[in-house]
Write a structure and sequence with these properties.
single chain; alpha/beta; Transcription Regulator spoIIAA; five-stranded mixed beta sheet; 4 helices; 45% helix
């Protein structure tokens, strides 16, 4: 699992994930993902290159979402692959991890 993040607005980071968000993938990004969530009000997570998500990977995303929500922010998932989106919808985390299709839609959902 690879993770890259950049600040795109004063209080918003764009996190790009690539690979499998399984046990090994989650272990690889837990610390930097938590740091990104702790230092930005809003997080836009580009999921387009995530090929698989396991429950431990969902946990990583949910913990990040809770971190930003405590400060009044949002974490949005952008463009997950259909199979990844189906997993997220099936387990019922759409309220905590809203899915949008495109960065422009994500920025609009943040109110900017």
């Amino acid at each position: 699992m690879e993770m890259h993040f950049t600040t795109i607005l004063q209080d918003t980071a764009r996190v790009v994930l690539a690979g499998r968000l399984d046990t090994a993938g989650s272990a690889a990004i837990d610390l930097p993902f938590s740091a990104a969530a702790g230092s930005h009000r809003h997080i836009l997570v580009d999921m387009s290159a995530v090929t698989f998500v396991a429950s431990i990977g969902v946990r990583t995303l949910v913990l990040g979402a809770k971190t930003v929500q405590r400060r009044g922010g949002k974490l949005l998932l952008i463009n997950p692959r259909p199979e990844v989106e189906q997993v997220l919808q099936t387990i019922g985390v759409a309220d905590m991890l809203p899915i949008v299709h495109g960065e422009a839609e994500a920025i609009a959902a943040l109110g900017g």
